[in-house]
Specification:
Length: 210
């Protein structure tokens, strides 16, 4: 059987950690190979689900598959708590989206008009910049994009696995908060730990003030 011929790429961008009380906001850009009809070449990846609908084990398996597949390339960027406090969480997520895309494109030249989909609420640099350069970027923000486009779903999985690993490492530095369990989100156990120990350098102080 003749091998499928790679015709192009589609890029998906998604973030994780927007609502956490601690740790970075993390954005991944995932580039998937497409055929002449614009479909993702790997049939395995055409039915990808948003990372929130997968177990940690399922996400880790898929992340390994992405890393091994020549039809998938990705890049990750983070903005840390002090940066989030300085420019606000929406701007921080958009900044990370821009950085992730730039890192991805640094090693991959794309055809003009390559489609870029971002999950709802996320923009390259800013909404005004993206819409003002839409023709050049071919970038579109789509509500529930992680449910509609495999590339965005792939990005959500990569971002989640990357951030979870970071939070597990952070737990080794600050074991009293349980970051490896709740990943920095505002669970009851996390709030109790903050009340008992006070915030650490990994916390977003502007979030705690709210």
């Amino acid at each position: 059987m003749a091998a499928k011929i790679q015709k192009g790429w589609v890029i998906g961008i998604d973030e994780v950690g927007r609502g956490a009380l601690a740790g970075p906001v993390t954005v991944a850009a995932a580039m998937l190979a497409t055929d002449a009809r614009g479909r993702v070449i790997s049939t395995r990846f055409r039915s990808l689900k948003d990372s929130k609908k997968l177990s940690p084990a399922q996400r880790k398996v898929l992340a390994k598959e992405f890393a091994r597949d020549a039809g998938v390339h990705s890049a990750v960027a983070r903005v840390y708590p002090r940066g989030i406090e300085k420019i606000n969480i929406s701007a921080a997520a958009n900044l990370a989206a821009s950085r992730a895309l730039l890192r991805l494109l640094k090693n991959h030249a794309l055809a003009v008009g390559t489609k870029i989909y971002l999950d709802g609420g996320l923009f390259i640099k800013s909404r005004a910049y993206q819409e003002g350069n839409a023709g050049k970027l071919a970038a579109k923000t789509v509500i529930k994009g992680d449910e509609r486009f495999p590339a965005v779903a792939a990005a959500s999985i990569i971002a989640k696995v990357s951030r979870d690993r970071f939070m597990v490492r952070l737990a080794e530095r600050y074991p009293q908060y349980g970051f490896d369990i709740h990943k920095g989100y505002g669970t009851a156990a996390h709030l109790r730990a903050i009340r008992k120990n006070g915030p650490c350098a990994a916390h977003r102080l502007t979030f705690l003030n709210k």
